[in-house]
Amino acid sequence: MSSSDLVELAKRRGYFFQSAGAYGGVSGFYTYGPQGATLKDNIEDSWRDRFQRREGHREIDAPTVMPEPVFEASGHLDTFDDMLVECPECGASHRADHLVEDNTDIEEAESISIPDIEDLIADHDLQCPSCGAALGGEPVEEFNLMFETNIGPGSSSPGYLRPETAQGIFVEFPQLAEYARNQLPFGITQIGKAYRNEISPRKSIVRVREFTQAELEHFIDPTEDEPDIDRVADVELPLYPAEKQEEEDGTEYVHKTVQEAVDEGLVHEWVAYYLGVGKQWYESIGVDMDRFRFRQHLSGELAHYAADCWDAEAEVGAARSAAEDSSGDEPRDGGDWIEITGYAYRSDYDLSKHDEYSDDDFTVFKQYDEPKVVERATVDPDMSYLGPEFGGAAGDIADALEELAERDRAAFEDDEITVEVDGEEYTLPAEKTGFSVEEQKETGEHVMPHVVEPSIGIDRVIYTVLDHAYETDEVEDETRSYLALEPGVAPTFVGVFPLVSKDGMDDRAREIADDLRAEGLDVTYDDSGSIGRRYRRQDEVGTPFCVTVDDETAETVTLRERDSTEQVRVPIDDLPEVLADLREGEVTFAELDAPKAEQ
Ligand code: GAP
Fold it and tell me: Which secondary structure element, helix H or strand E, spans residue 442, and what is its range?
């Protein structure tokens, strides 16, 4: 389905549309309509179920605005940049690496340096997409993607809208570790808005300036903790490793189970574990596994915090060839691959930065089973000597001696010791350092946890689910288009119709709709237009089932399945249970023990 068709369908059927249309719309901001907001809720709930509840993690809810020091520490202030080129004629701003990707065979141009991007723009005579002016020779600059604001009146307290929900978890680590009773490993999730002042938003909700992230930060002891690989060992992963991408015709995937990927050292064990969890989840919400892969980041593409990273990517916008039948077996014409999730091994990057920049301790204290006796090299400098001898530098020299004793106790075997403070060397007799090696009892040690992070872009997942759900077939000699959404995420689960709005059928249908709502199902009632048109409407919205009341006094109704258009008769009293089972996947429509209805 092309991007413009999807956007048109999304708008017409209440999934999403550009915000503030009455004022001309604003690029990079979208509103989810009545269907879209519920689809989003359902996808978020299923993410909570799979990544949080079933993994035993807990969720937090932090502010979206955070003070500048947080982003100084995290590195976002210095390095969270994209490449910007401005048109000398019309002044339009463009993302330089995307221009290169769109107009050459180069993929992942983000990993290319700025001078090389400038050369590529000039060599390929790239032009401004807005006005056609030549961009060769124009400077490419780094543009920081964070939205800046002031906290309170005045400008003395700058803040930023968070560019990722993750920092809201990292800055609270000291509190969170306490709640976890200092026991690693533990995982904290957060779902909420993130903001990036994208240079050129595109593909509707795929690249926006305000979007929803669902992130998990799993804090581990890198020397001890191992994932429970058995839980996902057999999950098959379609992997696209960096070395395959770098080959001339690098389109070959490597198909491995999670266990194989770990055993063969292809993927870090913790990242592999979550690739397995993720694959199960995408499949359960309707991502087509024939249009899905895990792509490893190329080294130049890694985020400033990531030691290794694999993206879950989905192919979208792939159109079926005209010759294709409704079975879906025919190949599709190629679409675009979009990143829907990043799985990063962030090591101790974030916690050690916040430990360094803040006043708090971002380690956990790991208690030993038995206290250990260890040898510690210490100094007790003679300050009555250091003071008169070195004046104001005496304190720093004492600190430098302590640091040297910890690092290199052999240095104290000489008669004289030399240390460097602020680039200057100071030498003093060994006996004035008070050097000694003592036995100490230690009950534990401070560990800086490492972090494994699956970071899901909910909007891109929604886009993929809609794109992959789109189907067409022939019904009653007419082309029908429908969204084959998974029953577990479909925003409207069942449509209830009276065959005609008279003879009490409408009252009966309304009663049934109310009863089903009381059972917690998402129900729509529709009595306008022919029954065929009502079915088509719900098909296009993606409603998996419809119930039609065709006789006021009958004890059964017709239950129709969207994908097959098959119909069966179901007793009204059984409807809530039957529909609940269908929603939970306890039973499929084909397995229902119910007589076929006349069509
Ligand atoms: N905490 C890690 C992090 O933020 P990321 O790869 O920059 O990593 C994670 O973002 C996910 O957020 C991406 O895989 C993507 O799905 C989504 N995302 C990022 N920028 C986006 C944007 N401008 N619009 C929509 N989704 C976006």
Answer: strand 436-447
Question: Band of the pLDDT at 111, cuts 50, 70, 90?
Answer: confident
Alpha helices in 48-164 (DSSP H): 68-74, 76-79, 96-103, 114-123
Which residues in 180-226 belong to E strands, given as ranges?
186-195, 210-220
Test site for ligand 1: of 19, 208, 211, most ligand atoms within 8 A of the Cβ: 211
Ligand 1 atom at minimum distance from 311 CA: 14
**Cα-to-centroid distance, 340 and ligand 1 (Å):** 7
pLDDT digits over 391-425, tens only?
Answer: 999 999 999 999 999 999 999 999 999 999 999 99
Atom of ligand 1 nearest to the CA of 456: 11
The predicted pLDDT at position 596 comes to 82
Query: In this predicted structure, what is the pLDDT of residue 325?
Result: 45
Tell me the average pLDDT across 348-369: 96
**Residue 517 has which token pair?**
């709502």
CA of 214 to the centre of ligand 1 (A): 10
Would you give the DSSP letter of residue 304?
A: T
Residue pair 458/447 in contact (Cβ under 8 Å)? The answer is no
Is the CB of residue 560 less than 8 Å from the CB of residue 532? no
Please state, for a pLDDT cut of 90, what percent of the chain lies above it.
Answer: 87
Looking at the chain, the number of H-run helices and the number of E-run strands are: 18, 28
Q: Which pLDDT tens digit goes with each residue over 291-326?
A: 999 999 987 777 777 778 999 999 999 875 444 444
Backbone torsions φ then ψ of 476, nearest 5 degrees: 50, 50
Beta bridge partners of 417: 428
**Span 509-527, pLDDT tens digits:** 999 999 999 999 999 999 9
Give the C-alpha separation, 286 to 39, whole Å: 12
The CB of 461 under 6 Å from ligand 1? The reply is no
Distance CA 238, CA 561 (A): 32
Mean pLDDT of 34-48: 98
Provide the token pair at 482: 């429908």
Q: What is the pLDDT of residues 563-579, one digit of tens each?
A: 999 999 999 999 999 99
Q: How far apart are alpha carbons 531 and 551 in whole angstroms?
A: 14
- What average pLDDT score do residues 358-386 get? 94
* Protein residue whose Cα sits closest to atom 2 of ligand 1: 455
Cα end-to-end span (Å), the chain: 30
Instruction: Report helix, strand or coil for 148.
Output: strand
What is the residue with the minimal CA distance to atom 26 of ligand 1?
457
Most informative mutation of 164, 281, 347 for ligand 1 (most atoms within 8 A of CB)? 164
CB 168 within 8 A of CB 66: yes
How high is the mean pLDDT of the chain?
93
Probe residue for ligand 1, chosen from 71, 162, 204, 455 as the CB with the greatest number of ligand atoms within 8 Å:
455
Question: From the CB of residue 280, how many other CB atoms can be counted at a distance below 10 Å?
Answer: 14
d(CA 207, CA 196): 9
Cβ atoms within 10 Å, residue 263: 14
Predicted confidence at residue 305, as pLDDT, reads 73
pTM for the whole structure: 0.89
Q: Is the CB of 457 under 6 A from ligand 1?
A: yes
Peptide bond preceding 331: is omega within 30 degrees of 0, i.e. cis? no
